[in-house]
Every structure is written in C-alpha cells, then in structure tokens.
Amino acid sequence: MTGGTRATRAIHEALPPAMREAVDDFAEHLARVRNRSAHTVRAYVADVVSLLDHAVRMGCSAPGELDLTVLRSWLARQRTVGAARTSLARRAAAARTFSAWAHRAGVLPTDVAAPLSSPRAHRDLPTVLRADQAAALVEAPDRRPSATRPAEATGPAAGTHPDAARPDAAGHRDDSAIGATRQDGPAGTARPEDEPVRLRDRVLLELLYGTGVRVSEACGLDVADVDHGRRVVRVLGKGGRERSVPYGVPAQRAIDDWLRSGRPALVVPGSGEALLLGARGGRLNPTTARRIVAGYAESLGLPRVSPHGLRHSAATHLLEGGADLRAVQELLGHSSLGSTQIYTHVSVERLRAAYRQAHPRA
C-alpha cells in the first residue's frame, strides 16, 4: 500500500495477508478501472482498512468472512467515537463499494453490504453571492491599481499577492508562486510586472463564475481546451468525464487579453500547455487559486467565498434565470441529478426570504 497516513499504513501492515492483498487490489481497481482521483482512493482505502481492522478484532481472518453484522458494528463504533453524519455516510459508501467489488472479484461469496443503510448526510445550503456581488468580485482585478491589494489582510506580509510562495497544508510550496512580494508602485500605481498577474486573476474569476467549473478543473485547463469560435471550454471532470462548457463575452475578452498580454509574460520552458500560470510560470495551483478568490472577496467586504462558492452562485443564478435543471447538471458535470437539486433549495430559500420581507400577510 502506498500513500495514506502513517497510522493507516501501520494498520494495513498489521492485517492478515489476504486482507492486505484485498485492500491493494481494491485500491488499484479504484485508480485504474474506476479512474477515481487520488484523494478519493486514499479516503476509500483508509475506510476499508479501518473496516477490516475492526473485522479482525471481531475474529475474522480473511475478507471473505465479512458479513452485515461486522459492517453494522463497525459503523456503530464510528458513531460512538464521534464521527459526523457526513463521515458515516462516506464510510458506508466505501464499505458498499468495497463489498460490491469484492463480490465481483470472487473475494466475497455475496455482496454483504448491499442491504447496508447509511445515515442521511446533513447538507447545509451553500453560500451564494447575489448577482451584483458576483459581478463585483469578477471585475475586482480591473478596478485595482495592482493585483496585490486583496491579500493585504490575509497574506503573510502587507502587499503580498495571494500567488506569493508559501507552504500549503502539507508543507509544500506552490511551484507556481511568486518568489518575492509584490507591492504597489509610487502613488498607488501598478508596476508593469504586476499586469500579467492581474490579467490572470481576471481570467480565473471569469471562468469560475462564468462557467461554474470546479477550481481543479479550471487549473487543469490547457490552451487548446479553449474553443474561441464556439466560446466553450473542454473540461476534464471527476472520474475522467469530459464535457464542454460555454462561457460568455466578458470571459472571452478576459481570455483574449490574457493570451495576448499576460500569459506570454509569465510563460517559461516548463509551462507546457497550461492555460492559467502562476507568477513563476508553472501551472496555477488550486490552493493558490482559492487564496486569490478569498483575497479579492475580503478586499471588497463580501461574504467569505471560495471557488466552490462561485460555482454555487453560478448554478443558482442559472436556475433563477430560468435554466433547466438537467442543463445545469450537464454544465456542472454532476453524475446525479440529486447533486444539482440542492440549488433549487437555495432558490426556494431566497423566495421565502423575499416573501417574508415583502408580503403583508407573511
């Protein structure tokens, strides 16, 4: 087993050989056959390792000895130690996925987890900007003399752009980051070297809100993924699913300005075909993109928002404007319509709020 936390690897190594082999084969199935992301593989494998460790403690010595009683006992124990409903739902999903795979692979005589129910995860309504707030955020880079201002409240030093090099949660530095802090020039004027970053920020914000793509999808775009004639971008989403997403005239202008005057100033031999670049020329990192969005939002006094918040806002505004739910599902790349339906709840809540505020009989 590769990857995972030290504790997960230690538990994996302590499992009986047949169970270790089953975990490794399951991980390969998720990565190579199901084409799941590395994050999803790590999460599911950690859950399965925990399940099999619990099974061993209940007297099982091979994965074929798993039964529904063991699965329910494992979930009950997770709840006892304080696991959230969302965590329990994911762990139950991991157990069902493992059980179905193990049955098909001949590791389990039956799909023992098929009847396993899981707690319904609580789903908070997402934070959504108003249309005017979203427009202000997207246009923020054009209203500032320098692209460095938004990070003043959040950056490591005054005048530091969100692109500035600093470790992420794992202690790694973003390859695309600026090596030195950027500051405004005399009398608040922008320095020429800041202009490419400002143009990049505008493209990033336009794409996140104008298309509703995930931040990882935006950062993964290549130059060739932009179809200027049809004004669509080719996006590689979850599970390797590809889709085409339209964008508007403002985004087209931002892309044109970036490709003409911004990207050539940042490109380096190692840039490859990446559409969005960090200030050192590497592909823009999603962590850096999140800091950029948060910095601009904070500088405007907007509610705390992330790239996913812009995605929520785009979907909600589409539905409020009369878009069909299934069309929004396709645009967002949701595999299930149920994932898209949460945005109808957001719209209903707004309608209720307007009713309570304006109707004399509310």
Automatic annotation (TrEMBL):
<dbReference type="InterPro" id="IPR004107">
    <property type="entry name" value="Integrase_SAM-like_N"/>
</dbReference>
<feature type="domain" description="Tyr recombinase">
    <location>
        <begin position="160"/>
        <end position="356"/>
    </location>
</feature>
<feature type="compositionally biased region" description="Basic and acidic residues">
    <location>
        <begin position="163"/>
        <end position="176"/>
    </location>
</feature>
<keyword id="KW-0132">Cell division</keyword>
<comment type="function">
    <text>Site-specific tyrosine recombinase, which acts by catalyzing the cutting and rejoining of the recombining DNA molecules. The XerC-XerD complex is essential to convert dimers of the bacterial chromosome into monomers to permit their segregation at cell division. It also contributes to the segregational stability of plasmids.</text>
</comment>
<dbReference type="GO" id="GO:0009037">
    <property type="term" value="F:tyrosine-based site-specific recombinase activity"/>
</dbReference>
<feature type="domain" description="Core-binding (CB)">
    <location>
        <begin position="17"/>
        <end position="103"/>
    </location>
</feature>
<dbReference type="GO" id="GO:0006313">
    <property type="term" value="P:DNA transposition"/>
</dbReference>
<feature type="region of interest" description="Disordered">
    <location>
        <begin position="137"/>
        <end position="196"/>
    </location>
</feature>
<feature type="active site">
    <location>
        <position position="214"/>
    </location>
</feature>
<keyword id="KW-0963">Cytoplasm</keyword>
<protein>
    <recommendedName>
        <fullName>Tyrosine recombinase XerC</fullName>
    </recommendedName>
</protein>
<dbReference type="InterPro" id="IPR044068">
    <property type="entry name" value="CB"/>
</dbReference>
<keyword id="KW-0131">Cell cycle</keyword>
<keyword id="KW-0233">DNA recombination</keyword>
<dbReference type="GO" id="GO:0007059">
    <property type="term" value="P:chromosome segregation"/>
</dbReference>
<dbReference type="InterPro" id="IPR050090">
    <property type="entry name" value="Tyrosine_recombinase_XerCD"/>
</dbReference>
<dbReference type="InterPro" id="IPR011010">
    <property type="entry name" value="DNA_brk_join_enz"/>
</dbReference>
<feature type="active site">
    <location>
        <position position="311"/>
    </location>
</feature>
<keyword id="KW-0229">DNA integration</keyword>
<dbReference type="InterPro" id="IPR010998">
    <property type="entry name" value="Integrase_recombinase_N"/>
</dbReference>
<dbReference type="InterPro" id="IPR013762">
    <property type="entry name" value="Integrase-like_cat_sf"/>
</dbReference>
<dbReference type="Pfam" id="PF00589">
    <property type="entry name" value="Phage_integrase"/>
</dbReference>
<dbReference type="InterPro" id="IPR023009">
    <property type="entry name" value="Tyrosine_recombinase_XerC/XerD"/>
</dbReference>
<keyword id="KW-0238">DNA-binding</keyword>
<dbReference type="GO" id="GO:0005737">
    <property type="term" value="C:cytoplasm"/>
</dbReference>
<feature type="active site" description="O-(3'-phospho-DNA)-tyrosine intermediate">
    <location>
        <position position="343"/>
    </location>
</feature>
<feature type="active site">
    <location>
        <position position="308"/>
    </location>
</feature>
<comment type="similarity">
    <text>Belongs to the 'phage' integrase family. XerC subfamily.</text>
</comment>
<feature type="active site">
    <location>
        <position position="238"/>
    </location>
</feature>
<feature type="active site">
    <location>
        <position position="334"/>
    </location>
</feature>
<dbReference type="GO" id="GO:0003677">
    <property type="term" value="F:DNA binding"/>
</dbReference>
<dbReference type="Pfam" id="PF02899">
    <property type="entry name" value="Phage_int_SAM_1"/>
</dbReference>
<keyword id="KW-0159">Chromosome partition</keyword>
<dbReference type="InterPro" id="IPR002104">
    <property type="entry name" value="Integrase_catalytic"/>
</dbReference>
<dbReference type="GO" id="GO:0051301">
    <property type="term" value="P:cell division"/>
</dbReference>
<comment type="subunit">
    <text>Forms a cyclic heterotetrameric complex composed of two molecules of XerC and two molecules of XerD.</text>
</comment>
